[in-house]
Amino acid sequence: MGKLFVVGIGPGNYENMTIQADRVLSGCDMIVGYHVYVDLVKDIYPDKEYLSTPMTRETERCRKALAAAAGENKQVAMVCSGDSGIYGMAALIYELSGAYEGVEIEVIPGLTAASSGSALLGAPLTHDFAVISLSDRLTSWEKIETRLDAAARADLSIVIYNPVSRSRPDHLKKACDILLRNLPDDRLCGVARSIGREGQQYEILTLRQLREAQVDMFCTVFIGNAMTKRQGERLITPRGYRDV
Amino acid sequence: MGKLFVVGIGPGNYENMTIQADRVLSGCDMIVGYHVYVDLVKDIYPDKEYLSTPMTRETERCRKALAAAAGENKQVAMVCSGDSGIYGMAALIYELSGAYEGVEIEVIPGLTAASSGSALLGAPLTHDFAVISLSDRLTSWEKIETRLDAAARADLSIVIYNPVSRSRPDHLKKACDILLRNLPDDRLCGVARSIGREGQQYEILTLRQLREAQVDMFCTVFIGNAMTKRQGERLITPRGYRDV
What we know:
By secondary structure, chain A is α/β, with parallel strands linked by helices. Chain A is built from eight helices and 13 strands. In chain A, strands 3-2-4-1-5 form a five-stranded parallel β-sheet, with helices on both faces. In chain A, strands 7-8-11-9-10 form a five-stranded mixed β-sheet, with helices on both faces. The first copy, chain A, has a three-stranded mixed β-sheet with strand order 6-13-12.
């Protein structure tokens, strides 16, 4: 029986992969994924069969991975950046799997940008938080707005995935305007860029400054809660221990 | 100069640690932590100096780790379960570090239960979600209630950490009652228990059933959004691809 592993590779560097993800990628016959993620692992596991598909062809990519595992009785790994469950391909693989008999599926989790970006910035997620994507390709902007609004009102820290893209360059600005209805101008925020990859850097700034910041699709954005503060060069949210 | 690594070890098994966490724990001189987490790593790295402290002594534990790294010029690793940033010790270490000169701090992220539990259940977090702890030791119950309410109204999936403890056995029941104000009885939920450890198991159930479920402090609870469904034996939240 073929097996399909849906593997979260974390932010992109070898060190931030889990031991399990490394073992699965070392042991599999074939690696499938969006070409950017495939390129990240090709140097580490050069002797594999590779199959990459362009962006936005998610369903096609999943069908190819399932077909490879089903028809050819192979051990196939589909790679996703970050966690394979959080905005990843795991749910779509399960949804499509009914049409492919005899494929066992296993989801291998990976570090999502909320974790890896948080570690880079300091520790902004010590308390309750929401993770919200600004991509309106599959979600209405109205729904995204409702969620941003609710999270800000409830004093949740917020991690923003997909803050902008070529086709929606002003989404982060729009999101900041929504947040500014309930949050102060000087609420502390952070931007983590190219986590674990070349050009990794981070910035701490206010919500007002974030509205004007140059942010690209390699960035993950953090909005602090009411307790979030700057500690030296780091952004931290205290848990609230009374004996500090 | 001494160095203190704040290491997220993930759910508890070696395979779900990152390669970086493994390297740090292999290379350090001393491992500090809550005794349950220290016991999880002692068998893997037997030749280390160990220092463990009881539960709720977080500030004391962090001060001891900082002092060991500062005074003795050691490489010290403080271990946290899950991610060291998400409800972990990283922020407290930064807050206390001012009193200890010459200690470099590095946060090593790990798999948080939202990721590892999600992979066990299927893929319930493919879309926006909130992470909320029910521990009212450091947070007012009123604030927790506000956050649960906001997340449910905004159709966020919800991951509940610390659903119950010995001193608050009915917290999950109270949380379900809050959620039931806005969510239907049959909203799909999941419970992941002892992820990556002996006795690992999961259960898919409705919100009404969750209210009556036997849940302990080794459980992480998932509340689906309006799209969450059962696919075979798994709980999944579709991302919304139109060509499925």
